[in-house]
Amino acid sequence: MNIIGKRAWEMPEHLATPEHLFFNRRQVLAGLGLAGGMAGGLMPLPLRAEEDPSAGLYPVPRNSSYVLDRELTSEELVSSYNNFYEFGSHKRISAAAQKLPIRPWVLKIDGLCDNPQEIGIDDLLKKMPLEERLYRHRCVEAWSMAVPWSGFALAELVKLASPKAGAKYVRMETFQNPDVATGQKQTWYPWPYVEGMTLAEATNELAFMATGVYGKPLPKQSGAPLRLALPWKYGFKSIKSVVRISFTETRPVSFWEEIAASEYGFWANVNPDVPHPRWSQASEELLGTGERRPTLLFNGYGEQVAGLYAGLENEPLYM
Ligand code: MTE
Asked: For residue 184, what is the enclosing H or E element?
């Protein structure tokens, strides 16, 4: 582990602790400099879909199997309140993220698979069955959103790669470009951002590669052009701006796990009864609404995913 400075990497506690974290729409807007009416303030950046060669693909048909128990979060909030440490360890990174070049964008598929390859994002998009899904998104910091992702099932990408019999895990990696992502100049973080999951999790119907949102290509701050969405896990597992997917026999060590394994583990399944070492996970703030709700086991997706964990009861599944 490569950390300098005393706990310099920590998510600020005032953002992470429910007692201290009580965002309502006004507070979020105030934090963005938008309080007192939108007119004179800093408006969230437009999504600039017209510059993205994939813009014509959207909107895509909605898969009606995925229904929400809450209103969708506003597009403005989803595109202006982000965690993307490559561009800063705060939420207002959307302007800085515009520097990220997203074409050409090549995804490398490697490791234990029969079809290793490097494929450009637009060629990949042509091969994948695109659909829209409405998902809950629960951050480990005890806030949540409800987001209409567009994209394709990760299982389709796994099928394209054709994993070998020995492959047990899927490892994903974000781009590395400190010239545009100045957060990556902070050398105490173990860049690039890495995430991992079991092959069984990756092929679960819920695991989704998002390429768009709100019927448009993903904005850069949301992880364009390709990000993961694992809605039953804490949001840090949903790695952004993926450039590499590898099939491995050994369990990958993820970015946050390398920094603080006792706080951000490999499994990170949402569970209201298992607190984070520094705060409760019992409830969440529905960002933009002022509402606080009890958190659901597996973020409400137990029907689809609980079976993945049979026989793994001795693992720290919920941190
Ligand atoms: N992926 C990368 N590459 N870098 C990050 O800092 N943050 C994670 C996850 N994926 C992060 C990342 C965290 S902590 C969360 S909660 C979600 O992205 C936030 O996604 P959002 O900004 O679209 O809400």
From this structure: none
Atom of ligand 1 nearest to the CA of 222: 23
Supply the DSSP symbol for 262.
Answer: T
Domain 16-306 architecture = Alpha-Beta Complex (3.90)
Question: CA dihedral defined by 20, 23, 27, 30, rounded to 10 degrees?
Answer: 90
- Bridge partners of 244? 108, 173
Rg over alpha carbons for the chain, rounded to the nearest Å, is 19
φ, ψ of residue 65 to 5 degrees: the values are -70, -20
222 lines ligand 1 (CB under 6 A): yes
Q: Which atom of ligand 1 is nearest to the CA of 85?
A: 6
Q: What is the pLDDT of residue 261?
A: 95
Three-class secondary structure assignment of 82-94: CCCHHHCCCCCCH
Entry field: residues in the chain: 319
Report how far ligand 1's centroid is from the alpha carbon of 142 (Å).
Answer: 14
> Is the C-beta atom of 238 inside 6 A of ligand 1?
yes
- Burial class from Cβ neighbours inside 10 Å (0-12, 13-18, 19+) for residue 318 reads buried
**Distance from residue 221's CA to the centre of ligand 1 (Å):** 9
Regarding pTM above 0.85, the answer is yes
Q: Which atom of ligand 1 is nearest to the CA of 241?
A: 3
Return the pLDDT at 7.
43
Which residues, given as ranges, of the chain have pLDDT below 50?
Answer: 1-44, 46-50
